[in-house]
Each structure stands twice: as C-alpha cells, then as structure tokens.
Design goal:
Elements: E1 45-49, E2 52-56, E3 63-78, E4 88-102, E5 106-113, E6 120-131, E7 134-142, E8 171-181, E9 186-193, E10 211-218, E11 232-245, E12 249-251, E13 257-260, E14 266-282, E15 285-299, E16 305-320, E17 346-357, H1 361-364, E18 374-387, E19 392-405, E20 416-426
Antiparallel strand pairs: 1-2, 2-3, 3-4, 3-20, 4-5, 5-6, 6-7, 7-8, 8-9, 9-10, 10-11, 11-14, 12-13, 14-15, 15-16, 16-17, 17-18, 18-19, 19-20
Length: 427
C-alpha cells in the first residue's frame, strides 16, 4: 500500500522535552571543519542507512539528504447512527523530504505533502547556524507554540494529535531566531509571522498585520546524568497580534467538526494565545501535558463585537513494554522483527485525556448556533504501537469523545467512538 519513499525530518530534540521544532538534533546537518591537509574539492561521500540517503562533501560543508515518511490509515466510527463520520481508508501523510547544508552554516528543508491525493507545501525554510545560541530561520515552518504540534507527524504517540493542537498555530510564513543555551538546558524561539487562525496553516497573508510568537523551554536537570529528573522539562509558548478575516472551526479527535462560528462572524482585532507545557521521560516511560488559551476579538456585524476566550488541555502517558527508551519520539527495537532470530520488535501502550471548551458568551451572543455546535468536547483514548523495526510502525487507537450541547433543544451531540489504524514507513 505504501509505495512512496517516506520521510522523517524531525525538527525537535528528545521527546521528553521537544524544545526545538520537529527534527532530532542528531539528524540536523552539522558542518564539519575541513580535514587538515585535505583540499576543499575532495570527492563527495554517499551513504544510505535507516535514517535516509545522504550525499555530502568530504568536509561536510555541503550535504544533500533525502528522507520521507508515509502513513496509510483506516478510520472507523462505531455507533454512528447519524453517519457523521465515513468509514474509510486514507493516505494521511505522504511526505518526501529534501534537506541539507550549503556552505557549512546554512541548513535547508523542503517538505511537500501528497496525503489525501492533494499536493501541499508543508515546510520550506533556510536555517542559519551562526552559533548554537543564535540561529535564524526564515520561510514556512511550524509556529513555536504548541508542544505536541512541534513533534513530527512521524513520531506521534497517537494517530491524531490531541485537542489543544486545534487552538495553536500549525505552519506559518515568517522569520524566527532560536537557539540552545548551556547545552540545551534552555531552548528559546522568537519570531514574526503572517499569523494564522487557530490550528491553521498559510502560504499567503490576507492582511498587513503580523503576529509575534515565542517559546521558552527549560530542562533544568538535563546535565545531571545521575538524576531521575534528567528527562523533565517545562516551558511556555505564546502569540500576540491584531488580525482580521477568517475564524477557525474545531474538530474532534476523529477529525469531524463539532464547533463552527456563524456565517457572518469574522476575527477583527486583538488575538493572543498562551500555552504552558511540560514533559518527562525516564527510560521507556513518557508523560507530557499542555494547556492552551486563545483570546480573540470577533465581529458579527457592523455594530456587534465580542472578545471570547477558548481553552483546551490534555495529558498523555506511554510506556514501551519491551523496555526501549524512545528518542525524538521514535522507538528503535532491541530486536527488530525477524521471527527466525526471535525478534518481534517493540510494543508501546499509551493513554490520554483532554478537553476543549468554547467561551459561553459565543452562544449567548449569537456568534454560534448551540443546536449545531457543541460548547465543550471531552476525549479519552488508548493506543497500542508496534515498532516492527526502526522504520516500520503499526498503530491502533480507540478514542471516545463526549460533548456538551451541539444538538437541538439544548441536547447533547452524540458521543463519538473512533477506531484508528495506521501502517507507517519512515526513514
């Protein structure tokens, strides 16, 4: 089923903290000093391994890397009397990724996506490594806010991200400074972006306004190799700007819309988000949590405005039963699948709970229809991940979501029961 060479460009460090964007540090192109006594035009070196295909100059100043990942999913909705969800198989993500280094200090990434049979540009940026504590990234990439959003789609614990992800920015066009201080004890990101609606991505701005966005993540015990808190980290992300135009919709874990604004409602004024977050890893155990609040000025008509605050939070825990310690969200089995040699891969169990709440004034003021949109979603899920090899993973999730409101005469929208299956190849 998976016929596309698939990729893994994870721009974030170890999953216990994920202080950077979505790519493991060990995979970030790092230029090397020319070897003493060697000319700069020495022959190129080509390698192929579990992390992709690489061609680079002998001194490492120029590098081209081809990686990728593809995900074939099955979505099934139980007790779906209203047929809100369609039982289907879908190519969720199909992402060949080209990345590399030009001129020793300048890294680039180009990531298209052909998931769902459509073409889109996910990432395209240049990252200048002037110093470990000062780097400059420009182009299209993930906004520096949500903890789970910054984790690569190839390294997710669950098939679909949790409810807070629908409130933070997805991908934006802008420029960002970022870096590590004290060998990663402190990681910071700060930038100026075109700005997107909650959960949105954008290629072309719709107005002159811009968003200021930033994130700081601390791992105070990172250098204490003997301490059990080495894998503990915490931080906060935020955005601030003045935007006008489209408003968001919010979806369930099963990717069905449960809240939407009225047809005449637009964003019109100040928008701020705040996202405190924390994570912890100790061997095969991983835990993380985040809370997001988004405050937005809305307009319904020439004379009617409202400032509303929507919130979401979640907690996630997982453990690899076979004892392996995940790195950058990925598990490398001690014994890859090979029954002839007694190898069966690695198995991980996961659980989570989360909620998304919509400001009640949105309904009482007529900015949304309470008979069509729910004011709150509560979701819990369990998952089983089978890491057959470092590059092949099978996933099974069950998510149950209940709602407050969202039906006629003040009733409740019917609960959603979604079963997800995934076959993934990545390198």
């Amino acid at each position: 089923m998976l016929t596309v060479a698939a990729a893994l460009a994870l721009l974030g460090p170890a999953p216990a903290a994920w202080p950077a964007d979505d790519k493991p540090k060990e995979e970030q192109p790092q230029g090397e000093k020319p070897k003493e006594g060697k000319p700069n035009d020495t022959p190129a070196v080509a390698t192929a391994n579990k992390e992709g295909f690489t061609i680079q100059s002998e001194d490492g100043s120029f590098k081209l890397k081809v990686t990728g990942y593809a995900q074939a999913d099955g979505r099934f909705y139980a007790s779906d009397a209203n047929k809100d969800g369609v039982d289907t198989f879908v190519l969720r993500r199909v992402r060949p990724i080209v990345s590399g280094t030009v001129g020793k200090y300048f890294d680039f990434n180009i990531t298209p996506d052909f998931g769902g049979g459509t073409a889109a540009l996910q990432d395209a940026f240049l990252d200048a490594r002037f110093n470990p504590a000062f780097r400059v990234k420009a182009g299209k990439f993930k906004g520096p806010v949500g903890l789970e959003r910054l984790q690569s789609g190839a390294a997710l614990t669950f098939v679909e991200r949790g409810l807070p992800t629908f409130i933070v920015p997805n991908r934006e066009v802008g420029v960002q400074i970022h870096g590590e201080i004290d060998a990663g004890v402190v990681y910071y990101q700060a930038g100026v972006f075109d700005g997107v609606v909650d959960g949105g991505s954008i290629d072309t701005d719709l107005n002159d306004s811009k968003d200021l966005e930033g994130r700081v993540f601390l791992q105070p015990f990172k250098k204490n190799s003997a301490g059990g808190l080495k894998g503990f980290g915490f931080g906060i992300g935020a955005t601030s700007g003045t935007q006008s135009g489209p408003v968001p919709t919010y979806k369930t874990i099963g990717q069905l819309t449960f809240f939407s604004y009225g047809s005449t409602v637009t964003s019109d004024g100040s928008r701020t988000r705040i996202a405190p977050q924390a994570s912890f890893q100790n061997g095969s155990l991983r835990i993380f949590g985040e809370w997001v609040s988004a405050k937005q000025r809305l307009r319904k008509s020439a004379t009617e405005t409202l400032t509303a605050t929507n919130e979401a939070w979640q907690g996630v825990a997982s453990i690899v039963l076979s004892g392996e310690a995940p790195a950058a969200g990925l598990v490398t089995p001690k014994k890859a699948f090979d029954p002839a040699k007694g190898g069966w891969g690695a198995v991980e169990l996961a659980g989570r709970y989360g909620e998304l709440s919509v400001d009640g004034d949105i309904f009482t003021s007529g900015y949304a229809d309470p008979a069509r949109s729910a004011r709150k979603a509560k979701a819990w899920g369990v998952g089983l991940n089978w890491y057959v090899t470092r590059n092949v993973k099978y996933v099974a999730n069950y998510d149950h979501t209940t709602f407050e409101g969202g039906a006629a005469a003040g009733g409740r929208r019917k609960a959603e029961n979604a079963l997800f299956l995934r076959a993934q190849v990545s390198f």
